[in-house]
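Case study 2.
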Amino acid sequence: MAMVIVYNSESFYVVEYPSEHGFEVVDKHARRGTFLTGDLAERFRCSMQSVINVSPSEEDVDDFLGELEALMTQRVAFH
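Prediction:
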């Protein structure tokens, strides 16, 4: 399964899985994440692109991703 790292900061990690038409979003501090597919993944792609197009700071992108907190319900274990 191919994956593309879209974003990686001290706080968040975003990976696109093109073959699955989805995105994995992980909050590293909360150790929680979510997998977005379908229409939600497409809306996320458009929103993320809008954020990136304005040359944001890392803090701006992290703030945007933090808005997804309610969706990040899956516990994540780091190895």
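Residues 4-75 form one domain.
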